[in-house]
Amino acid sequence: MWWLRLGDLLRFRLPRHDQMFVKSYLNEAGLFLFNQMSVADQAHSVRVARYIIEERAAGKDLNLDCLVQAALLHDVGKVKGEIGRINRIVVGIIRRFFPRKRDQWARRDKTSAFRYALYVDAIHPSRGGYMAESMGIDPQVVTLIKKHHDPDSAADDTLELSLLKLADAKS
Ligand SMILES: [Fe+2]
Ligand SMILES: [Fe+2]
C-alpha cells in the first residue's frame, strides 16, 4: 500500500523482529544481497514475505521456502543510494500510471538523477536476478526475481510467481 511505502522512507533501521525473520529465511549470500538494499526496500520486502505467509500461502501446494526467499530478495536490483527519496515516489507513480514513459525517459548515464532512477526501476528485475545468480542463490528464486514485473501470462506464471506479484502489489 502506498501509505506504508511512504512510511518506509522515514525508517532508519529494520525493527529487530523483522531482522530475525529475515535471518530465519536467508543464507549468508541472501543476507548480503538483502542488506545492500535501502531500509525502505527492506521493509517493503519483509511486508511482501509476511503477506505471502499470513494471507495467501495457507493450504496451497507450493514451495513456500523458495517463495519467501524470493519475496525478501525480489527488489535487490535496487541498490541503496541509487534512488533518492523524492524520486522513489515519482518513479513509483510513473511506473504505475505511465509505464511507457518510464522506458522512454530512462537513461543509463547519471547526469539526471531522475532519469537514472527510471532506468534502475526498469532494469531491477533482470539486474537483481543476475546479482542473485552470481551469488549462488537457488535458481527458482532467481527466476522469480527476474520475472516479478513481467506481464501476467496464464501459460508461464507459476503459482509462486502469481502470488509474488499479488503480494508485491498489495505491499
Ligand atoms: Fe520490483
Ligand atoms: Fe517490490
Q: How many DSSP-defined strands? A: 0
Question: How many helices does DSSP assign?
Answer: 10
Q: Provide the number of structural domains.
A: 1
Bound molecules: fe (ii) ion
The H-and-E topology, N to C, reads as HHHHHHHHHH
Low-confidence stretches: none
Residue-averaged pLDDT: 90
Structural class: mainly alpha
CATH fold topology? Hypothetical protein af1432
CATH class: Mainly Alpha
Q: Measured on Cα atoms, how large is the radius of gyration?
A: 15 Å
In the CATH classification, which architecture applies? Answer: Orthogonal Bundle
Main sheet attributes: strand count, strand direction, barrel closure: none
Termini separation: 5 Å
Helical content (DSSP H or I, runs of 4+): 55-70%
- Based on Cα principal axes, name the global outline: globular
Quick description:
The protein is mainly alpha-helical and 171 residues long. 68% of the residues lie in helices and 0% in strands.
